[in-house]
Write a structure and sequence with these properties.
The complex is a heterodimer of chains A (375) and B (330).
Chain A lengths: L12 E3 L18 H26 L13 H9 L6 E3 L5 H7 L3 H7 L24 H15 L6 E6 L6 H12 L4 E7 L2 E2 L2 E2 H4 L8 H5 L3 E5 L3 H16 L5 E6 L18 H8 L3 H11 L5 H27 L1 H4 L14 H28 L1
Parallel strand pairs in A: 1-7, 2-3, 3-4, 4-8, 7-8
Antiparallel strand pairs in A: 5-6
Chain B lengths: L2 E2 L1 H15 L3 E5 L15 H9 E3 L4 H13 L3 E5 L7 H11 L2 H4 L9 E6 L14 H5 L5 E3 L4 H13 L4 E6 L8 E2 L13 E4 L4 E5 L4 H12 L5 E5 L2 E3 L3 H11 L2 E8 L4 H13 L8 E5 L10 H4 L3 H11 L8
Parallel strand pairs in B: 2-3, 2-4, 4-5, 5-7, 6-7, 10-11, 10-13, 13-14
Antiparallel strand pairs in B: 1-8, 6-12, 9-11
Helix pairs in contact in B: 1-7, 3-4, 8-12, 9-10
The chains are: A alpha/beta (375), B alpha/beta (330).
Chain lengths: 375, 330
Amino acid sequence: MPRTPIKISAEIDYLSILDEQGQIDKSLEPNLSAEQLKTLYHYMLLGRRLDERMLIMQRQGRLSTFAQCTGHEAISLGAAFAINKADSFVPYYRELAGMLYRGWPIEEFLLYWNGFEEGAMVPAELKDLPFCVPISSQLLHAVGMGMAINIKNEQKVVVVFFGDGAASEGDCHEALNFATVFNVPVIFMCVNNQYAISVPLSKQMKAKTIVQRAIAYDMPGIQVDGNDILAVYSATKDAVTRAREGGGPTLIEAVTYRVAPHTTADDPKRYRSDEEVAIWLKREPLVRFRQYMYDKKIILKGEEEKLEEQITNDIKAAVEKADLLAKSPDFSNPLHIFDYSYAEIPPCVQRQRQELEDYLQYKKGSYKKEESKNA
Amino acid sequence: MPEMNMAKAINLALHEAMAKDERVIILGQDVGRDEGVFRVTEGLSAKYGDKRVIDTPLAESGIIGAAIGMAVYGLRPVCEIQFAGFDYYGYQQMESHAARLRNRTRGRITVPLVMRAPYGGGIRAPEHHSESKEAIYAHTPGLKLVIPSGPRNARALLLAAIADPDPVIYYEPKAIYRLFREEVPEKTEIMPLGKANIARVGKDITLISYGASMQAALGAAENLAQENVDCEIIDLLSLSPLDIDTIINSIKKTGRAVVIHEAPRTCGVGAEIIAQINEHALLYLEAPIKRVTGYDTPFPYFSKEQYYIPDADKVAMACRSILDIDGAAN
């Protein structure tokens, strides 16, 4: 038998629409109304300002460790904007802007990062999933949701997010393989921010791109400028259209940079230079989108201040609400530890619940004793 | 040697092991340039380079699986899983191969690896960063399981784990990484695996614990001493193999026991200890044995973690309930 070449398509596009200076490529500009663009800008700014506010609160000791999303807004928001509310959005944990647009109330993020499960309560009207901390595991859930959509003969899609580090986990490969085997309507959005805590992408993998895996699994793939919300939106929109028509999954690699630390517990100065960060800060998504909005005269200078003020007020109200909720008898009740693992509390768990209740009563009593002694 | 905290003592053991034996290799996520998210691998990458201190891609199964490969090929890998709550991807490799290769090959192939993993709550961390899943490993034949409780034993046990011919899970109670300092001997000290330590000698009741929960046991003993209750405390150190003799000898003396651990109660390490006490010393018991443990729920988000984690008051309350004390709470 002769040795013959196997022809494999090995071409993948890179898409950039709005460049670093906010200059548009007219031929690729998506057809979005002024209202739509305003909405996008609103949520992008809200995501950024909330992230900044949370950092201040963390420094004040009012929030614990959290994962900042600054610089990642274009990806989650651009993708969220390309799907419908009836579709599903499956995050990892840097999708703040997109989730706000999906309808997650601001206070939920404050509660989540303050150690309340209530912050992971998916809004009832959504078929979305909450943050997923175990890296890469959510990809298979998205695939399963896609399989369910096919089984139920629905026209819906799922967009699922994962990082460049997550691409190294076995679950990622399993998910991509399942996805084409079962032709699921799933958009895999890789948020390539080039760092898995301290490990740069160059030590994470030797391949040139993450998106080239699309070739291996025989699905369409595209790499986009992840700091360009119009590129993310357009690429996702194409993938969504294809998926709704039965065309199956798409892998999108959105190239960005984690300008913030991995979490507030991380010190990136240990493993990368300020110069490297500075280069990427110049490419960040909000400034260039603002420039585009100015150039199109969709936002005028005065309006910008009004929007900032509105966002500041919305965040302030949410902070107050989260504080109230955290102290409310319902959210602060320690006995709720026991109440949500099963539809029905098993007897042994019920006994443990009683045990903690007794203990809390006993503590209250002994404090009272102490107080009366002191009085 | 000066006093040091537990994180530093573990780091010292890694330095000693690497200096002594060039087969010792460190691998894991962020263990190199970042020196570990808890800085436990500090100075190792700078000293030994990336050939012996390996930052791996983000893949727990990859880390454990590769460590197995290194171990069967004559190296002594010490791999780090960043948080115990993320070791499930690696568990398949651990159970199916690390724990079995010796048996499968009738002793021809052995897997002398160590898996280090910070475990437990109390540091206000996000979900999956506070789990105590030691029972899974204690329930896996072929593995050894070690949990230190302070700087001195942390160093001496890690050195024993690295020298051990079989796979050892070395669970690090992260809540006490930097809680207190302790004198660590100048000369290399190695404590044998499989030996418990009597941390406090007493005659009235035996408190059995390990890891960060030792703090609750010690606190309770101090409180109870004011009520003239004399607690004996056993620090297990090694959960597999379990030093049942030390436990039985203590029970024979006190006739009463409370087992304390942060992990969920059902099928936890406490259940096994009580079963073995029943098998070996039932007739010495003066009262039922109590357990103070985490509950049979997922570890709660941190706003409620203090209610979940055993504390000195809970332990003292359990002790009073099985001691003949007036006004006992239960």
